[in-house]
Write a structure and sequence with these properties.
Elements lengths: L12 H8 L5 H13 L3 H24 L11 E5 L4 E5 L2 E8 L5 E3 L10 E4 L2 E4 L3 E4 L20 E13 L2 E12 L4 H5 L7 H9 L3 E12 L5 E13 L6
Parallel strand pairs: 1-8
Antiparallel strand pairs: 2-3, 3-11, 4-7, 4-11, 5-6, 7-9, 8-9, 10-11
Amino acid sequence: MNRSLDTPEPVEEKILDLLVDGELDPARQRELFRQLDTVPGGWRQCALAFLEARAWKHDLRSAALGDAVLTSQAGGVIPQRLSRLGRLRNGSLVALSVACAFFAGWLIRPEPAGRPVNALQSPRTHATDPDPVVAGHTDEPVLPEKSTDADEPAALRVAGILTLKFDDRGHERELQLPVIDGARLDLRQWLDQPPAVRASIVQALERRGHKVDAHRELLTVNLKDGRRFLLPVDQVDVKFAHRVYQ
């Protein structure tokens, strides 16, 4: 059956997503607002789009950062600006890209000439080091550095605080992560930590028809003293299915 000429066209979900993201120019906003005035339930649909975006953002942020325990310790701050939060597009679906720093990373000392380099690779990850300085969040207590036997794990000590700055929808936010200095640290053990986003959050998204894709990577930052800082990050992409309103 053909749509009546007097029946207004429904509001496209992708246009509402652009409005929520602040990506509509003034002219397109005015056009959208006029359309919302003519479409039955248009303004209700618009309000639900904003509420849904806020709810998902709150749940994902709580899952990623809510369990983190940050320890304040004396030490130099490593000023680095890393902006990894953003939104991606895939056809008519909205993909919310959330970068979750579940702990800070490794500070890699420069290699002496002729010294072999050991490589450890993880999906989208490259790390080189025999003698790292590590920054991170851990549920275990941080122990002061002391001499250990060969069969005992290396002790860890806090060497400083990393101040991580990122953009959150136009507002600059800061997150402080402890920098941990550890000798002979098992890098693979740190990479195998549980995901930043809880399984219950992923299951809740998938039950509503949304697709969740997560992977872990290391971001590399070159420091002025020749060392390299490796920041482990969980990247979580949520592709929202078409909304169903009740």
